[in-house]
Amino acid sequence: xxxxxxxxxxxxxxxxxxxxxxxxxDPGRRAQLRQALHQGQxxxxxxxxxxxxxxxxxxxxxxxxWRGTVGEMPVVVLRREFDSxxxxxxxxxxxxxINLLLSTSGLLAEDVAQIWxxxxxxxxxxxxxxxxxxxxxxxRFALDETALASGxxxxxxxxxxxxxxxxxxxDYFLLYEICRLNPKTPFHVNRLLQQLQARGIxxxxxxxxxxxxxxxxxxxxxxxxxxxxxxxxxxxxxLGAELCRGRLFELETDGSYRPNVKKLQQLRAYLxxxxxxxxxxxxxxAVFPDLLVEGSP
Length: 297
What we know:
Elements: H1 2-5, H2 27-37, H3 41-59, E1 65-70, E2 73-78, H4 79-105, E3 114-117, H5 125-134, E4 139-142, H6 147-154, H7 164-168, H8 171-181, H9 189-198, H10 203-214, E5 249-251, E6 257-259, H11 261-276
Parallel strand pairs: 3-4
Antiparallel strand pairs: 1-2, 5-6
Helix pairs in contact: 9-10
């Protein structure tokens, strides 16, 4: 379908874009491509046609081709080309990820008893045939579109399945607490941990993540324009340059951490600006009160 958009007239103006590789996540390129397609009617027509092709060929395994139009241009998509150029790279990537998961878990394919499928793509005949070959002994169950959202909604009822320590003290909460301490001179880790513990934080459940923050691993999404999808996010020109470069803390030869005071101050102000536009607060850790389930004794 992208070849249609890249003809000489290039109505979607994709000539300057590097297209994502089929089957790969490639979030930055995909975000740029989707943004470019949404800028004009030709691009929106192309997106609609691509979705229609996928849904039609999924729902009708006997079809060998799809015929339609993109704008006023007639288009024919052969199933064999759809399978070889789109689905096969996707299946190959899933196969690599599953093999890695099995390897790290110490399991064999024969040890898998059930597979749960969600999303329209999971019902593609090509993918289902591969699953049957990869896991011939497993039971497969199809989940409806709301399954993930419903599962997240009821997850607090099953507290034994949750990592309460991580949920209670999010990376954003811990980072904000460190900013509130406002260290201005080099400090050792134990001193920082004692200060956080004095503020009521259960250090045992989050010590490793505090160390990660000190070593420069910031929470995902903190600065969206630096994420893989960041090509479509404009950096805020009002933010100080210090916030976007360098580390919050530098490890000294004696094992202490030297804070970047200016960056810490800018980061705290930045977090306060974010919080002013949200209902969420970092003033207190998340709490998980016992739930009274309706109908329970």
